[in-house]
Amino acid sequence: xxxxxxxxxxLLKEDARRDTALIATMLGVxxxxxxxxxxxxxxxxxxxKYTAVVNGSKVDNDKVTALIExxxxxxxxxxxxxxxxxxxxYPEVKSVYLMSGAYDLLVEVEGKNLKEVASFVSNKLSPxxxxxxxxxxxxxxxxxxxxIIFEETEGDHRLVIxx
Length: 163
Fold this sequence. Notes:
This protein is of the alpha+beta class. It has five helices and six strands. The strands form two sheets. A four-stranded antiparallel beta sheet has the order 2-3-1-4.
């Protein structure tokens, strides 16, 4: 990937609402070069989607999010990818990551309530062949996501005392 594409990508990661004219001005290059770079990255699936980062505590969102550690035994000839694909095709699953360490996959699941997530784990995920164990952790509060801090910190409101 060339340097222009890297810079454009970084600017879009910071704020996907930036248009090509603004990015061109920020980088000091012609707008058509930026538009071409963006189009090529979209075509090459470098840029997959533009999305908003939403502070769930500020909206009426009663959904529950859980992170599930999954230990598996990969099947001969299929590896981890086959089972990861079977898992990420479920609509409840938001993300799946291959991990190093004590477990193999980290699965992010979203449901209407705790019972729905528990049902997913016990009825859909755990029964899959090759799954050795799961550990489920429910997200209670998000402080920061994708580099964005959700909670506004209050400044020090104490009165100054002078001698």
